[in-house]
Amino acid sequence: MILSVNGIQKTYGKERVLNGISFQIDKPRIVALVGPNGAGKSTLLNIITNLKQPDKGHITIFDKDNKDPNIFKEISFMQDNSILYDYLTGFDHLQFIGDMQGIPKEKLVSTAKRVGMEKYLNKKVGKYSLGMKQHLLLTMALVNDPKLLILDEPLNGLDPTSAIRVRDILIEEHQNGTCILLSSHNLSEIDRVTSSIIFIKGGELIEENISIYEKTYYFVIVDKIEKAKSILKENHTVELKDNKIFFYKEDLPIQTFIEKMRINNINILDIEKKLHGSEDRYQNIYMKNGAEL
To answer: Which has fewest Cβ within 10 Å: 27, 137, 182, 205?
Structure first.
């Protein structure tokens, strides 16, 4: 068993943040931990990595108690940038890890290059942007080639190019046998790396495989919307939403739609393709009419 979380409870004052959280990861997967701010995601990750103590419950990592210091040779935890020191360089941070775990300088530098931070590796962290700090934190988490990689908001503050690079690194790590547990608010990026999601609500878990919800759908703008709807509704399930034609790929293949519009002299002005995935499921669990439940 890679990770076993059993009956974790945590209370701050009168507020029960985690209410008997239990789940297991028995093989290398990418698992996303999702919930609104204050749901307890970071608290749970801190408890898993023994940085905070639960009121009740027990955790094992690779069948060892999570208080066993030997497990930290096999896991890494990417925390937020509050752990960084402004007066040290990026390399200073990596060198400290290298000295603690016997990692050679060549490995530290090559990992920094892989993440894309070699140009500012020797600058003081106080001069780093938020995205540069995220790069450093990820590099720090990767240098020991962990078997279990735990990431708290790894995509926070990243531009699109950096987000794509990090996503590709996570997929590559998983393909090489690393198990990844990450929290993130970036649901569209989560959909790109995993369908295995744990939602936290009210201190409890809703663990789901989002792939059963994933459907491709389209919003299309045409110049003769009522005529288009009349033609399509005889054989296909379509709806009108905000003056756009809405349909699922399974109900109406896009090429069939385009051909029907051409035959009937209806001009297509815009096509928007979307994936019904984690964002839609998030709204079902946490929101109603655009407001949080």
So the answer is: 27
pLDDT at 214: 59
pLDDT tens column, 153-170: 998 888 888 888 999 999
Q: What is the pLDDT of residues 78-115, one digit of tens each?
A: 999 999 999 999 999 999 999 999 999 999 999 999 99
- CA 57-63-65 angle, 5° bins: 45
Q: Are residues 126 and 227 in the same domain?
A: no
Rounded Cα distance between 118 and 84, Å, is 17
Residue 116 domain boundaries = 3-212
pTM: 0.76
Residue 291: what pLDDT? 44
CATH classification of the domain holding 241: 3.30.70.980
The CATH number of whichever domain residue 57 belongs to comes to: 3.40.50.300
Query: What DSSP string describes 31-92?
Result: EEEE--TTSSHHHHHHHHTTSS--SEEEEEETTEETT-GGGGGTEEEE--GGGS-TTSBHHH
Residues of the chain with pLDDT under 70: 195, 207-215, 275-293
Q: Is the domain of 66 the same as that of 110?
A: yes
Instruction: Please check whether residue 244 lies inside any domain of the structure.
Output: yes
**pLDDT reported for residue 120:** 97
Asked if residue 120 lies in contact with residue 87, where contact means CB atoms within 8 angstroms, the answer is no
Pair 191, 236 in one domain? no
Q: Is residue 281 part of a domain?
A: no
Residues 81 and 119 in one domain: yes
Whether 195 maps to a domain, the answer reads yes
